[in-house]
Structure formats: C-alpha cells, structure tokens
Amino acid sequence: MTKKILITGATDGIGLETAKRLHSQGHTLLLHGRSPEKLAAVERQLTDGDGAGLIDTYVADLSRLAEVRKLAETISQAHDQLDVIINNAGVLKAPDTVTRDGLDVRFAVNTVAPYMLTQSLLPMLAPAARVVNLSSAAQSPVELDALRGKTRFMDDMAAYAQSKLALTMWTKAMANAYTSGDRVFVAVNPGSLLGSKMVKEGFGIAGKSLSIGADVLARAALSDEFANASGRYFDNDQGHFGSPHADALNARKCEAVVEVIEELIASLFN
After folding, report:
1. Nearest 5 degrees, angle CA 152-CA 71-CA 111?
2. What residues does each domain of the chain span?
C-alpha cells in the first residue's frame, strides 16, 4: 500500500537518497527544499527514473519560522492527509549563525522548525502515521538559554549537538503526549559520518555511503519494525534501538525543552 510522505531537506544528502528509494517504491512524495532550482532538478531526476509515485514540491527556508508556518499552511491546503513526516533537514555550519528571529540557526532549523511543522500538521496525520526525526550520535545537554537565542555559540559542533538532543527530547515528549492511537514519533541516528554535505563541511572527509542512512529512514517510515516504537531512539551506528543521551529519558527535562520551544513560537506569532 502506497503512502503519502513529506521529506524536508530533500534536495541533497540523506534526504535525496531517501526520496529516490521511496519514489522507486511508488509512494507519493512531498519534497521540501530551500532552493527552487534544486527542487526542480530533483523532481526531474525522480520523474525521469523508474518510480511511479507522484511528486509535490515545496520551497521554504526553515531558519525563518514564518516560512515554516507558511509551509505547513500550504501543505494543509493541498492535501487532506499525511502518512509520514521525515524531518530530515539540518544544518551544522552557516555564514551567519543568528537567524532573523534571533535564534541560533542550528536550533532554529534542527529543533524548532521541525517541532513547529509537525505540530501544525498533526491534524492531518493518518491514524497510523509516523513522524521520523533525524537525530545524531552527537548529543549534548541543552542549555535552555541557548535554545532561546540568549547564548551565542563559538563552536559549531557544540550548537549542533545540543540542537540534536533537543530534537530527540521533543520527540520523546510528543510521544508521551500522544499515547492514544497508533501514531509513531521516533528519533533516528541515521549513522555517523555519512557522506553528506554537512559531514564534508564539518569533518573534511568524504564519508560513508548515504544509502546507510536512506535505508534506515525508509524502514522507520514504513516497516513493521518501527510500528510500536513511539518514543524510542534508533541508533543506526549500533543497528538497533538504544538509549539516547540520558536527558532524553528524563520526562521533566524533555517537557522543559518543549516549553521553551512553545514560548519561542508564541512570542513570534501571538
């Protein structure tokens, strides 16, 4: 049975490889990217391939939360239901690390934007829908003032690691909040040092095959292996479900992260 799947950051890296795989299986894809040109090129590439799935494309800069809200509205107007959200888009380095909203760009793109997008699209998620969040082996305790944009980072990896733990923490909190039905909220480390642009920028190496990450994301989106995994963390470096950073297992700390994210959103839009 084919699904309707939203993938953010689908124009390169793991997102693109995952899109190729899911499109070849005939699923309908909602592909997000920041560049209209790259999105158009990806659509042509997939359409010219063997896949039979339909493709819909959406342009938004996830560092700008007004565009995240508009993206959610546009998707909601165009579609009645979604089966899977893959929050793949992420950033490690950027020329300007402070966004227009006054946030660190890593927290904006890696943490707040996917939370905001997911919350906005919850009403249209199918009963057995899945939300797959791209976590990382890099996780470190979240400074709430850094999440608020009040602390500035000098180190890119420190900001990235905090943003990815914050993502993992809100995944757990959302799973705890939506226990009725069989919706799944799962965080996935797709594999360390895969050959993405981010790894090349951050570590100066080619990295391992992106198919490693695409394979686990496709499984998380569709396989029975993840059907009862809501709130869990899959560590693809280990090849199985495991434990994230201890803070992501602390319900109080997870709720504190969600409260700050909600405060940020409210301060910008209310």
Report:
1. 30
2. 4-269
State how far the alpha carbon of 16 is from the alpha carbons of 32, 176, 198, in Å: 10, 30, 14
Q: What is the pLDDT of residues 27-42, one digit of tens each?
A: 999 999 999 999 999 9
Superfamily (CATH H level) for 4-269: NAD(P)-binding Rossmann-like Domain (3.40.50.720)
Cβ proximity of 191 and 238 under 8 Å: no
User: What pTM does this model have?
Assistant: 0.95
- Degrees (nearest 5) of the Cα angle 44, 68, 144? 130
Position 9, amino acid: G
Concatenating the DSSP letter of every residue in 140-208 gives ----HHHHHT-S--S-HHHHHHHHHHHHHHHHHHHHHH--SSS-EEEEEE--TTBSSHHHHHHH-S--B
